[in-house]
Amino acid sequence: MELLTVSGLRKQYGSHAAVNGLDFQIQTGRCVALLGPNGAGKTTTLRMLAGLLKPSSGQISWNEQVGHVRDPRQIIGYLPQMPVFYPWMSGQEFLNYVGQLANLSAKEAESRTADVLVQVGLKDAAKRKIGGYSGGMKQRLGLAQALVHRPKLLMMDEPVSALDPIGRREVLDLIQAIRQETTILFSTHVLHDAEEVCDDVLIMNKGQIAIKGDLNTVRKEYQSPV
Ligand code: ATP
Protein backbone atom coordinates (compact mmCIF):
# COMPACT_ATOMS: atom_id res chain seq x y z
CA MET A 1 0.00 0.00 0.00
CA GLU A 2 1.32 3.46 -0.81
CA LEU A 3 2.26 5.73 2.08
CA LEU A 4 2.82 8.75 -0.09
CA THR A 5 1.86 9.84 -3.61
CA VAL A 6 3.62 12.71 -5.33
CA SER A 7 2.14 14.19 -8.47
CA GLY A 8 3.37 16.95 -10.72
CA LEU A 9 5.73 18.28 -8.05
CA ARG A 10 7.67 21.36 -9.17
CA LYS A 11 9.95 23.97 -7.67
CA GLN A 12 10.86 26.96 -9.77
CA TYR A 13 13.60 29.49 -8.96
CA GLY A 14 13.25 32.38 -11.40
CA SER A 15 13.44 30.80 -14.83
CA HIS A 16 15.14 27.63 -13.51
CA ALA A 17 13.07 24.60 -12.52
CA ALA A 18 15.07 22.87 -9.75
CA VAL A 19 12.36 20.20 -9.67
CA ASN A 20 10.35 19.87 -12.81
CA GLY A 21 7.26 17.69 -12.48
CA LEU A 22 7.82 14.60 -10.33
CA ASP A 23 5.37 11.70 -10.17
CA PHE A 24 6.08 8.78 -7.87
CA GLN A 25 4.75 6.73 -4.98
CA ILE A 26 6.42 5.38 -1.89
CA GLN A 27 5.04 2.08 -0.64
CA THR A 28 4.74 1.50 3.10
CA GLY A 29 7.64 -0.51 4.51
CA ARG A 30 9.96 0.00 1.53
CA CYS A 31 13.42 1.55 1.55
CA VAL A 32 13.74 3.90 -1.40
CA ALA A 33 16.88 5.59 -2.73
CA LEU A 34 16.68 8.93 -4.51
CA LEU A 35 19.71 8.80 -6.75
CA GLY A 36 21.25 11.46 -8.95
CA PRO A 37 24.24 13.69 -9.66
CA ASN A 38 24.93 17.09 -8.07
CA GLY A 39 22.20 19.57 -8.85
CA ALA A 40 19.68 16.93 -9.92
CA GLY A 41 17.10 18.29 -7.44
CA LYS A 42 17.31 15.70 -4.66
CA THR A 43 17.61 18.11 -1.72
CA THR A 44 14.88 20.34 -3.11
CA THR A 45 12.58 17.31 -3.42
CA LEU A 46 13.28 16.07 0.11
CA ARG A 47 12.78 19.56 1.57
CA MET A 48 9.41 19.89 -0.15
CA LEU A 49 8.29 16.49 1.16
CA ALA A 50 9.46 17.46 4.64
CA GLY A 51 7.36 20.63 4.55
CA LEU A 52 10.44 22.88 4.75
CA LEU A 53 10.02 24.31 1.26
CA LYS A 54 6.81 25.28 -0.50
CA PRO A 55 6.32 23.62 -3.91
CA SER A 56 5.63 25.93 -6.85
CA SER A 57 2.99 23.41 -7.93
CA GLY A 58 1.98 19.80 -7.60
CA GLN A 59 0.65 17.58 -4.87
CA ILE A 60 1.97 15.48 -2.01
CA SER A 61 -0.73 13.21 -0.62
CA TRP A 62 -0.49 10.82 2.27
CA ASN A 63 -2.39 7.57 2.57
CA GLU A 64 -5.71 8.21 4.30
CA GLN A 65 -4.71 5.86 7.13
CA VAL A 66 -2.08 8.42 8.10
CA GLY A 67 -4.98 10.83 8.64
CA HIS A 68 -5.06 14.52 7.89
CA VAL A 69 -1.52 15.85 7.92
CA ARG A 70 -1.46 19.46 9.07
CA ASP A 71 2.30 19.60 9.35
CA PRO A 72 4.43 16.94 7.59
CA ARG A 73 7.05 17.32 10.30
CA GLN A 74 4.73 15.40 12.65
CA ILE A 75 5.04 12.25 10.58
CA ILE A 76 8.39 12.69 8.88
CA GLY A 77 11.83 12.32 10.37
CA TYR A 78 14.38 14.34 8.40
CA LEU A 79 18.13 14.15 8.50
CA PRO A 80 19.54 17.05 6.46
CA GLN A 81 22.81 16.81 4.56
CA MET A 82 24.54 18.98 7.12
CA PRO A 83 22.66 18.62 10.38
CA VAL A 84 23.12 21.39 12.93
CA PHE A 85 23.65 20.56 16.58
CA TYR A 86 24.28 22.53 19.74
CA PRO A 87 27.85 21.49 20.62
CA TRP A 88 27.47 22.46 24.28
CA MET A 89 24.54 20.06 24.80
CA SER A 90 24.96 16.37 25.53
CA GLY A 91 23.45 13.91 23.06
CA GLN A 92 20.79 13.08 25.61
CA GLU A 93 19.86 16.72 26.25
CA PHE A 94 19.66 17.39 22.53
CA LEU A 95 17.34 14.43 21.85
CA ASN A 96 15.10 15.38 24.77
CA TYR A 97 14.88 18.88 23.37
CA VAL A 98 14.10 17.69 19.83
CA GLY A 99 11.48 15.26 21.20
CA GLN A 100 9.70 18.08 22.99
CA LEU A 101 9.86 20.27 19.88
CA ALA A 102 8.03 17.38 18.13
CA ASN A 103 5.26 17.69 20.76
CA LEU A 104 6.20 14.71 22.91
CA SER A 105 5.57 15.23 26.62
CA ALA A 106 8.71 15.60 28.75
CA LYS A 107 8.24 12.03 29.99
CA GLU A 108 7.73 10.58 26.49
CA ALA A 109 10.70 12.53 25.16
CA GLU A 110 12.87 11.11 27.93
CA SER A 111 11.78 7.55 27.28
CA ARG A 112 12.07 7.84 23.48
CA THR A 113 15.51 9.45 23.92
CA ALA A 114 16.69 6.45 25.95
CA ASP A 115 15.38 4.08 23.25
CA VAL A 116 16.93 5.85 20.26
CA LEU A 117 20.28 6.29 22.00
CA VAL A 118 20.46 2.50 22.27
CA GLN A 119 19.16 2.07 18.72
CA VAL A 120 21.90 4.24 17.18
CA GLY A 121 24.65 2.95 19.46
CA LEU A 122 25.22 6.17 21.41
CA LYS A 123 24.09 5.04 24.86
CA ASP A 124 27.61 5.22 26.28
CA ALA A 125 28.15 8.70 24.82
CA ALA A 126 24.74 10.01 25.91
CA LYS A 127 26.07 12.37 28.56
CA ARG A 128 29.06 13.64 26.58
CA LYS A 129 28.97 17.04 24.87
CA ILE A 130 28.11 16.81 21.16
CA GLY A 131 31.09 19.08 20.37
CA GLY A 132 33.35 16.12 21.19
CA TYR A 133 31.54 13.59 18.97
CA SER A 134 33.22 12.21 15.83
CA GLY A 135 31.67 12.71 12.37
CA GLY A 136 30.16 9.21 12.46
CA MET A 137 28.72 9.79 15.94
CA LYS A 138 27.18 13.08 14.81
CA GLN A 139 25.59 11.32 11.85
CA ARG A 140 24.13 8.70 14.20
CA LEU A 141 22.86 11.47 16.49
CA GLY A 142 21.30 13.07 13.42
CA LEU A 143 19.52 9.80 12.74
CA ALA A 144 18.40 9.63 16.37
CA GLN A 145 16.87 13.13 16.21
CA ALA A 146 14.99 12.11 13.06
CA LEU A 147 13.63 9.01 14.80
CA VAL A 148 12.81 10.32 18.25
CA HIS A 149 9.12 11.00 17.48
CA ARG A 150 8.61 7.64 15.67
CA PRO A 151 8.04 9.02 12.17
CA LYS A 152 6.05 7.17 9.50
CA LEU A 153 8.68 8.14 6.94
CA LEU A 154 12.39 8.64 7.61
CA MET A 155 14.09 10.87 5.04
CA MET A 156 17.85 11.35 4.88
CA ASP A 157 19.78 13.65 2.58
CA GLU A 158 23.02 11.94 1.53
CA PRO A 159 23.50 10.28 4.92
CA VAL A 160 26.73 8.49 3.99
CA SER A 161 28.37 10.76 1.39
CA ALA A 162 30.65 12.60 3.84
CA LEU A 163 31.65 9.59 5.95
CA ASP A 164 34.80 7.49 5.92
CA PRO A 165 34.37 3.76 5.12
CA ILE A 166 33.82 2.79 8.76
CA GLY A 167 31.26 5.54 9.40
CA ARG A 168 29.55 4.67 6.12
CA ARG A 169 29.33 0.99 7.08
CA GLU A 170 27.90 1.90 10.52
CA VAL A 171 25.22 4.15 9.06
CA LEU A 172 24.26 1.67 6.31
CA ASP A 173 23.94 -1.07 8.95
CA LEU A 174 21.73 1.23 10.99
CA ILE A 175 19.55 1.99 7.98
CA GLN A 176 19.29 -1.76 7.41
CA ALA A 177 18.02 -2.21 10.99
CA ILE A 178 15.67 0.81 10.94
CA ARG A 179 14.08 -0.31 7.70
CA GLN A 180 12.56 -3.28 9.51
CA GLU A 181 10.15 -0.87 11.20
CA THR A 182 10.08 2.41 9.23
CA THR A 183 9.56 3.43 5.61
CA ILE A 184 12.72 5.14 4.36
CA LEU A 185 13.66 7.57 1.58
CA PHE A 186 17.29 8.63 1.27
CA SER A 187 19.32 10.45 -1.33
CA THR A 188 22.73 9.46 -2.62
CA HIS A 189 25.04 9.95 -5.59
CA VAL A 190 25.99 6.31 -5.76
CA LEU A 191 24.02 3.29 -6.88
CA HIS A 192 26.22 1.13 -4.66
CA ASP A 193 24.72 2.72 -1.48
CA ALA A 194 21.25 1.96 -2.77
CA GLU A 195 22.21 -1.59 -3.67
CA GLU A 196 23.23 -2.33 -0.10
CA VAL A 197 19.97 -1.41 1.63
CA CYS A 198 17.19 -0.38 -0.75
CA ASP A 199 14.24 -2.04 -2.44
CA ASP A 200 13.36 0.71 -4.88
CA VAL A 201 15.23 3.46 -6.68
CA LEU A 202 14.22 6.82 -8.13
CA ILE A 203 16.86 8.25 -10.42
CA MET A 204 16.72 12.01 -10.86
CA ASN A 205 18.43 14.13 -13.43
CA LYS A 206 17.89 17.84 -14.14
CA GLY A 207 14.83 18.06 -11.93
CA GLN A 208 13.07 15.03 -13.40
CA ILE A 209 12.83 11.34 -12.71
CA ALA A 210 14.75 9.52 -15.42
CA ILE A 211 14.26 5.95 -14.20
CA LYS A 212 12.23 4.43 -11.38
CA GLY A 213 11.62 0.88 -10.24
CA ASP A 214 12.95 -1.86 -8.05
CA LEU A 215 16.69 -2.42 -7.77
CA ASN A 216 16.91 -5.13 -10.39
CA THR A 217 15.05 -3.11 -12.99
CA VAL A 218 17.09 0.01 -12.32
CA ARG A 219 20.46 -1.77 -12.19
CA LYS A 220 20.01 -2.85 -15.79
CA GLU A 221 19.36 0.68 -17.01
CA TYR A 222 21.76 2.81 -15.01
CA GLN A 223 25.51 3.38 -14.75
CA SER A 224 26.53 5.18 -11.53
CA PRO A 225 28.42 8.44 -12.30
CA VAL A 226 30.88 7.88 -9.41
P1 ATP B 1 23.60 17.89 -4.47
O1 ATP B 1 23.87 16.46 -4.71
O2 ATP B 1 24.71 18.79 -4.95
O3 ATP B 1 23.16 18.20 -3.07
P2 ATP B 1 20.84 18.03 -5.38
O4 ATP B 1 20.46 16.93 -6.30
O5 ATP B 1 20.43 17.89 -3.95
O6 ATP B 1 22.39 18.29 -5.50
P3 ATP B 1 19.46 20.56 -5.29
O7 ATP B 1 20.26 21.10 -4.14
O8 ATP B 1 18.07 20.15 -5.02
O9 ATP B 1 20.24 19.36 -6.00
O10 ATP B 1 19.49 21.68 -6.43
C1 ATP B 1 18.83 21.51 -7.69
C2 ATP B 1 19.05 22.74 -8.55
O11 ATP B 1 18.33 23.83 -8.00
C3 ATP B 1 20.49 23.19 -8.65
O12 ATP B 1 20.71 23.65 -9.96
C4 ATP B 1 20.59 24.31 -7.66
O13 ATP B 1 21.58 25.23 -8.03
C5 ATP B 1 19.19 24.92 -7.75
N1 ATP B 1 18.77 25.54 -6.47
C6 ATP B 1 18.60 24.88 -5.30
N2 ATP B 1 18.20 25.74 -4.33
C7 ATP B 1 18.12 26.96 -4.92
C8 ATP B 1 17.77 28.27 -4.46
N3 ATP B 1 17.41 28.49 -3.18
N4 ATP B 1 17.79 29.28 -5.35
C9 ATP B 1 18.14 29.06 -6.64
N5 ATP B 1 18.48 27.86 -7.15
C10 ATP B 1 18.48 26.82 -6.30
Could you explain the architecture of this structure?
The longest helix is centred in the middle third of the chain and has 14 residues, at 106-119. The chain is globular. Helix 2 (91-101) packs across helix 3 and helix 4 (135-147) packs parallel to helix 5. Strand 6 (153-157), helix 5 and strand 7 (183-188) form a beta-alpha-beta unit. The model has no long low-confidence stretch (mean pLDDT 91). 33% of the residues lie in helices and 28% in strands. The chain is built from 7 helices and 9 strands. The strands form 2 sheets. The protein has a 6-stranded mixed β-sheet with strand order 5-6-7-3-8-9, sandwiched between helices. The chain has a 3-stranded antiparallel β-sheet with strand order 2-1-4, covered by helices on one side. By secondary structure, the chain is an alpha/beta fold. The protein binds adenosine-5'-triphosphate (ATP). Adenosine-5'-triphosphate is lined by residues 13, 18, 36, 38-44. Adenosine-5'-triphosphate binds next to helix 1.
What is the general shape? globular
Cα-based radius of gyration, to the nearest Å:
17 Å
Count of individual helical segments: 7
If strands are numbered along the chain, what order do they take across the biggest sheet?
A: 5-6-7-3-8-9
Bound molecules: adenosine-5'-triphosphate
Largest sheet descriptor: 6 strands, mixed
Q: Got a strand count?
A: 9
Distance between the termini: 33 Å
